[in-house]
Amino acid sequence: MSENDSNVIRREVDVVVIGAGPVGENVADRTVRGGLETVIVERELVGGECSYWACMPSKALLRSGQALRAARAVPGAAEAITGELDVPAVLARRDSFTSGWDDAGQVRWLEGANIDLVRGHGRLSGEREVTVTGPNGELTVLSARHAVVVATGSTATIPGIPGAAESGVWTSREITATKRVPERLAIIGGGVVGTEMATAFASLGSNVTLIARGTLLAGLEDFAGEYVSDGLKELGVSVHTGTTTDRIERASTGEVTVSTSAGEVHADEVVIATGRGAHTRDLGLDTLGLTPGDWLSVDDSMLVDGFDWLYAVGDVNHRALLTHQGKYQARAAGDVIAARATGSALELAPWGAHVATADHAAVPQVVFTDPEVAAVGLTEAAARDAGYDVRVVDYNLGWVAGASLQRDNYRGKARLVIDANREVILGATFVGPEVAELVHTATTAIVGEVSIGRLWHAVPSYPTVSEIWLRLLEEYGRPRVGESR
Ligand SMILES: Cc1cc2nc3c(=O)[nH]c(=O)nc-3n(C[C@H](O)[C@H](O)[C@H](O)COP(=O)(O)OP(=O)(O)OC[C@H]3O[C@@H](n4cnc5c(N)ncnc54)[C@H](O)[C@@H]3O)c2cc1C
Ligand SMILES: NC(=O)c1ccc[n+]([C@@H]2O[C@H](COP(=O)([O-])OP(=O)(O)OC[C@H]3O[C@@H](n4cnc5c(N)ncnc54)[C@H](O)[C@@H]3O)[C@@H](O)[C@H]2O)c1
């Protein structure tokens, strides 16, 4: 590209955001609201991974099976269920949630929010500068007066299992967008994607084998993975934990053989669900002295270490690979960029308006398996490792009146991890059918540092599953007179 090249469009704006996933969209929304002219660059679909190949399609694929099992667990309703899932209807509903992989609706949202879209692949090309290669090779050079925000997300990693690359394996993209349900499906990886997709496709009629090198859902409380393993087995999934995958081979017939330490698995398709890598390989990081392919390390206002104009928000900074947490970071980052640009007051102390403090203490996550797992904050092991004086209280969710009304044979467990010195909650985990909505109360209690004594005054309605809160408090004990705060 030469300076005088007439085919190069040059434009100066206040803020350039690279990546129009949920996080980039939210940063841009906040900078525009803060009075800054903002351009967003997108190489694929506006809405990002979450809208088309992750959160939305995966949850749509899971929901119908969950609703059917819920009805079957309630006598009276169960008798009314006479058939199986309507697979084409489930896939059609998934298609409606991805708008048929068409981003026109999200583009309209950008227009309504006064965010300018430049389609193409963005690369950092110098200080405060991004060069975009458009769909027909045209170049647009965007100079940012105030900030460049990298919100390019993450991509599925394919480990170096011999034969994987040549066998046409699927990742989360192909499984969430599939137009057919494979008769036999092997899934490698016992994390969130692996367990959710095993649940979805077992419900849709696949014969699923889940191969995990360790336990399921490592990183959460151990009992979460154990309950989910039992749930998968009840759905007919063959669960192999502590199992390594040595080779993947596709025969000319199309059949795939997965050789593992537990024997051979034969399948029609294999999904690799072994984690994510930073979407930064072809981003021009080297022009700034950074390493392509690395996650971008940031401070709590999302400024990349060593820069005063470069921000990294969402999956790409590796703080929490979750849409809601990335959008939380985006609100802080968008507002801090606007505040720094206009010279307004900054709030950078913990829990201030311009920092994502909750990333360190209160990241909620729901795993939409059956049973569901809803967790926030520290696990018991993480709290002990962090040096807290920990008290743990557990309770059987099936003993709560609201749970037994919800369905027969309700099975589940809840745990609070409590800082015994300050008597505040550090972490909470709920495992059971439809527990997703329970976790926000725990998030609020952790963020607000609400004392156990005060929580006794937060009365859950009878007979709801939320009465688990009262049972957990009873297990912990009521503060004596003079002790409550
Ligand atoms: C199967 C699956 C299910 C999931 N389910 C959930 C869930 O239920 N709940 C939840 O909270 N999280 C879920 N996640 C995680 C969630 O998808 C991510 O945390 C979220 O998408 C991150 O948003 P983001 O905007 O940072 O990145 P992305 O959504 O990945 O968006 C990044 C955007 O940047 C664009 N881009 C990248 N590089 C460039 C470039 N150089 N130039 C221009 N554009 C570029 C991409 O095309 C993309 O549109 C799931 C993930 C997977 C894989
Ligand atoms: N409901 C949700 O919120 C939701 C759903 C799906 C994904 N996500 C997010 O997306 C991210 C990615 O999910 P994921 O399941 O791909 O990653 P993950 O980190 O949750 O799980 C990866 C799994 O693969 C295993 N693994 C890693 N390398 C391996 C190898 N070489 N061979 C065999 N196994 C290997 C790990 O031990 C782990 O069990 C997660 O961080 C998660 O937060 C969230």
Q: Mind explaining what this structure looks like?
A:
Belongs to the class-I pyridine nucleotide-disulfide oxidoreductase family. It comes from Mycetocola tolaasinivorans. This is NAD(P)/FAD-dependent oxidoreductase. Keywords: FAD, Flavoprotein, NAD, Nucleotide-binding. The structure is a single chain. The protein has 485 residues and is an alpha/beta fold. It has 3 domains: 180 residues, FAD/NAD(P)-binding domain, CATH 3.50.50.60; 103 residues, FAD/NAD(P)-binding domain, CATH 3.50.50.60; 106 residues, FAD/NAD-linked reductase, C-terminal dimerisation domain (Enolase-like, domain 1), CATH 3.30.390. It contains 15 helices and 21 strands. The strands form 5 sheets. Strands 1, 2, 3, 4, 5, 6 and 16 form a 7-stranded mixed sheet that branches. A 5-stranded antiparallel sheet has the order 17-18-21-20-19, sandwiched between helices. Strand 12 and strand 13 form a beta hairpin. Helix 3 packs across helix 7. Bound molecules: flavin-adenine dinucleotide and nicotinamide-adenine-dinucleotide (NAD).
